[in-house]
Amino acid sequence: MPDLQQLRVLVAEDEFFVANDIALWLEKAGATIIGPTPTVKETLKSLAQAFDVQVAVLDINLNGELIFPVGDELALRSVPVVFFSGYDDMSVPERFRSAARLSKCAGASDLVNAVFEQHLQNLSNFAPLYVGLTDQSICELIPGLRYRARLLMAGAPPEAADLLVERTLERAIALAGTRRRSQGLDAWLHDLLAAIHDESPYGLN
Question: pTM score, two decimals?
């Protein structure tokens, strides 16, 4: 399960026990929770007071009111959303097509992975190195990272190399703000991967 590195996650859920489960799952994975809030009004108020939300987990229906005004406010801030709902067949407006959707039947690992992936996807659009040159996204670079990890860990099980890549991505999230504009994303990620391998050659400690 990914380490959420104190990621600040807004949670909106009107069922007390479900809200408690979500908060516990995310906190156990290392996240900092904002909320949970049980109504659209309270969620908007909480959001107005929190300027550093990084991901949101939202129930679509809060006490009979749809959560989409909160989604619109989050979109203005470029905050990714995971809709966590018991309504599998409830349609979501087209403007939220990039949001992840999970059923309330999903477990802790599914939710934590969805939050991690949404944040990672949001980080993948780094500023270009030079005018007119578009940087690659992290998602495009993962196959190369996996290949490099397997070369570094020749003879180790493939899952050990994949764990090394996962830890590299976690560290990339934590250190995203420190990357120099002149440093290519590919080279930066490979440097992180090599550094983590040097710290723990088998990627398992």
Answer: 0.61
